[in-house]
Amino acid sequence: MDVAQKDDEKCTDCGKCFESCRYGAIDPDFTLHPDKCEGCAVCAMVCPSDAIRMIERKAGEAYISDTRFGPLVHARLHAGEEASGKLVALVRQRAKELAREKGKEFILIDGPPGTGCTVIASITGVDLVLVVIEPTLSGIHDSKRIIEVARHFGIPALVCINKYDINDENTEHILDFCEVEGIEVVGKIAYDDTATKAMLAEKTVIEFSDGKMAQSIKAIWKKVEKALS
Fold this sequence. Notes:
The protein has 229 residues and is α/β, with parallel strands linked by helices. It contains nine helices and seven strands, in the order E-H-H-E-E-E-H-H-E-H-E-H-E-H-H-H. Strands 5-6-7 form a three-stranded parallel sheet, with helices on both faces. The chain has a two-stranded antiparallel ribbon with strand order 1-2.
């Protein structure tokens, strides 16, 4: 996202930039604060002496890492930055290029909760969305919204219920909702401290244990893979 930069030597102190900025990025003494700039470029438009110009600001970094499971494309957004959707788009583009180069069949995207720009950037153009729902009021609310977003973009969605046994009533509500909406529930994962133990051991659940959680995850993946094929 671009940010304003001011040349004090060209500035005539006319005050038009201060009057026009709606984000408080310019003080009454015409000092410009880049950390408050939203990149709207109004100040650059109204400046009669061309003392303000828009320059690129690095919002974060994207990385390509090698893991024991194959390549991983990820990123880090700088604190306070808002161009997260663009960073997600960059990660996806790099992943697409890498998949072609390595001859990979699938690209798995770990998307965030909610329906913000990062979610839209994560699911636009994908073949399938797997909505992971926890049986809480906030979880149900967010999942319904992401299902609506997926439908808006014409993307099929499947549902997995995580920690389904922490609230039986809410789990039944999710199942009823999916049945009415015609959404397949590909599996349920019980609450289990195996996930925490696996993380402490720096392993995936599948590597760490062959218990109920691991079996549930394997069964869910088989159904997701079938849906993709």
